[in-house]
Amino acid sequence: VTISANKTVTANDGKAVINEWQTGKVKVIKTNENGEALADVVFGIYADKACTELITKITTNSEGSGTSSALDVGATGSRTVYVKEIAITAEQQKLYSMNGTVYPVTISAGKTVTVNSGKPVINNWLPGKFSVTKVNSAGAYLSGAQFTAYTDKECTDILKDTAGNAVVITTDKNGYAVSSNIYVGKSGSRTVYVKETALNHPDSDIIALNTTVFPVVIKPNVTTPINDGKAVINEYKPGKIMLVKENQNGNRLAGVTFSVYTDDACRNLLTTIVTDEHGVGISEAISIDGSGKRLLFVKETALTDEQKPLYELSHTVYPVVVFPNQTVQVNNGKTIINRWTLGQITLTKVNENGTPLNEITFAIYEDEECLTPLLGADGKQVMMTTDEKGVATSEGIEVNNNGSRKLYVKEHCISEVHGDSYK
């Protein structure tokens, strides 16, 4: 100020000398739930709690920290402002939800005050989901398949969604289902375990539940398909084959072995069946392919050592169609009969001196009067002729259902080689 004689000079060129209000600053620290710093998050500082009067903005740096410019504290030396998150980056929007909390902050002259009492302002991860696609073994979509999510691979603790409800989903007509929102955890990913727990479908009596436990990693804002994106397949319930074995007399036969083949030539063995003490044999469970049925071939392949001398092994091949969740009896529900082995008649022919006589023919009859000849497989009467040792043996003869048969043998003729020596 330059003063002159007899004059009053006003300082500052006649303008008022202003005292500025003292100032303070606001600081914010920004992280995700895992404590990782979040950069480029924008906060607004407002004069009012409703956050309508914007004073300034703060943008966090690479360390997740941001500090405001100097803010007037007012005549009292302190002032309350309100801080609220107003923007996150496009990439962050894919992972995090906005933090809508309004933080009141009292600033004082010459001081920098950190929002939220010095603790980080946290952005929560967005929830994730999982999905399921369900088909039967033929590839057709299955509705009504219920899946439950668990926190543990033993499937003892049912998972709750962000609303606190059990995570249980059911497939629609397209075999598809998607879960409700699932918290991903502080680390930003979480493994949960999904298992099929029920099937409400018209074919549920023949379609088996898939008991596989599928681990799936839940990530923010992503719907992750279980089973690596492949459809979860429900196989048909297995079927079984049953058979009943008896002899011609109706007695059940135990220990008879049948083989089950996949081809009618009986080369490709699938399994075996052995009859029990009641003559009943039931196979192990047999898988069914996508057609819902399976054609197999059953053949008797072994008798017990005790049975071998008494019965003929049956060589019949029985086709059988196995259906899901059913036990199908071979031979159209009828018993399989083992025929008795063929019997034979033998005799020795000698003269009065005990010398064997050959070329002596005997005929076999069904009645004692020898009026009804026994016919062989060729339709001719069964005969037997002695050999050089005087022994004659018949062809194989069928026995009755009871395992025996009474027949009558009568000498029929003497060969000319003996001349008139014998009558």
Task: Tell me the number of strands.
Answer: 30
Largest sheet: 5 strands, mixed
Proportion in helices:
under 10%
**Total number of helical segments?**
1
Mass-distribution shape: rod-shaped
Which oligomerization state do the chains in this entry correspond to? Answer: single chain
The average pLDDT score comes to 93
First-last Cα distance: 180 Å
Q: Which structural class do you get from the secondary structure elements?
A: mainly beta
Q: Which spans have pLDDT < 50 for at least 5 consecutive residues?
A: none
Strand fraction equals 35-45%
- Determine Rg (CA atoms, Å): 49 Å
Summarize the structure.
The chain has 423 residues and is mainly β. It has one helix spanning 90-93, and strands at residues 23-32, 42-46, 54-59, 65-67, 71-72, 78-87, 102-108, 112-114, 121-123, 129-136, 145-150, 168-170, 176-178, 190-199, 213-218, 223-225, 232-234, 240-247, 257-261, 269-274, 280-282, 294-302, 317-322, 327-329, 336-338, 346-348, 360-365, 383-385, 391-393, 408-414.
